[in-house]
Fold this sequence. Notes:
This protein is of the alpha+beta class. Helices cover about 45% and strands about 20% of the residues. The protein is built from five helices and six strands, in the order H-E-E-H-H-E-H-E-H-E-E.
Amino acid sequence: MVKPMPDLHAFVTELFSKLGVSTDSIALSEGPRTVVRVQSPDAQAIVGQDGESLRALNTIARRMVEKKHGEEAANFLIDINDYHENQLEVVRKNALMLAQRARLFKHDVELPPMSSYERLVVHELFADDAEIKTESAGEGKFRHIVLKYKAGATAGA
């Protein structure tokens, strides 16, 4: 697990202050990527339409940290009022449903295009699956995951 910058909490607090966005709480949760969970009454303005503003904010914040502390310190994600977590839950449920289809029909199934982090979550979801293998395909904004049925795989093997 890569450690984020030394005082990520203070950085995010200052960033939101400079943006004029009020926050109720800011908490860090460690994992493959540190998630900065921010609760804010101004969430809708920060998230934007379909999460576009939040993606932009994350890109800018990571670039700022990367420039000052190096690339490894920029391994974090800012999540406002659990927007990203809720989106990831939808991605997980969709992937699990499509994996069932791949098992039932014993053929490959393509998921819709998704961000690199969403693809990482799906790859991790099926990392230990005996019947489904994941592969990324496509380029740029069309990059997606293909759920590949493993021929000859048996359940529980």
